[in-house]
Amino acid sequence: MFRQIQRGSQQAFSSFYDQYISFVFRIAFNTVQDRQEAEDICHDVFLEVFLHPERYNPERGSVEAWLAVKTRSRCLDRLRKRKAVCVDNWERVAGEQIISPSAEVLVLERAEREAIHNAMQDIPEPQRNVLYDAYFKERTHRELSERIQLPLGTIKSRIRYGLHNLKKRLTLLGWVHPERGEPK
C-alpha cells in the first residue's frame, strides 16, 4: 500500500488513513490530553505523509513505528509550545498579583525535583544528556543533533529510551503509577 501512496494514489492514501487514524489519534490524545489538539496533530502527521511519503524507509522500521515517532514528536513540539505560553501567562499574572504557594506545594515540588534528579542519575549518560538539553534547556531535536553531531534519529531514540528509563526509575521510586504511567 505504501508504494502506491509514494506513486500518488489517493485511494491508497485514503485506505492508509482509515487504517491508521485511530492509532495516531490514540497516541496524540494520550500525550496532549486535548481532543482538538490531538486532531490537529493527526492532521499534521497525515498531511506530512501525503506530501512526503518518500520519507518513510521500511529498512528503519515498521509503518506503525514511523507513525508513532512522527506523532510523538509533533506532540512534544506542541507541549513545548504550550509550556512556553503558560510561562508567559504566568509571568503576566504574577506581575499583577503576588501568589504565594503553600508550604505543602513547595515541599512537594522540591521532592519531585529531587526524585527526577536522582532518577536522571540512574539512566545512561548519553540518554541523560539529551533529556537534560531537550527538557531543561529546551533545545530542539535538530539543535541537539547539530550540537552533538549525531543523526537526528539517534537523538530521538536516545530521548525515547531515556524517557522510558526515567519512567521505569520513577515508577520504582513510587512517583509514577506502574499501570497508568502517570504521576501518583
TrEMBL record:
It comes from the Bacteria. It comes from Novibacillus thermophilus. GO terms for biological process: DNA-templated transcription initiation. InterPro entries: RNA_pol_sigma-70-like, RNA_pol_sigma-70_dom, RNA_pol_sigma70_r2, RNA_pol_sigma70_r4, RNA_pol_sigma_r2, RNA_pol_sigma_r3/r4-like, WH-like_DNA-bd_sf. PANTHER family: RNA POLYMERASE ECF-TYPE SIGMA FACTO (PTHR43133), RNA POLYMERASE SIGMA FACTOR SIGZ (PTHR43133:SF62). Residues 16-83, 119-168 form the RNA polymerase sigma-70 region domain. This is RNA polymerase subunit sigma-24. GO terms for molecular function: DNA binding; sigma factor activity. Keywords: DNA-binding, Sigma factor, Transcription, Transcription regulation. Gene3D superfamilies: 1.10.1740.10, Winged helix-like DNA-binding domain superfamily/Winged helix DNA-binding domain (1.10.10.10). Belongs to the sigma-70 factor family. ECF subfamily.
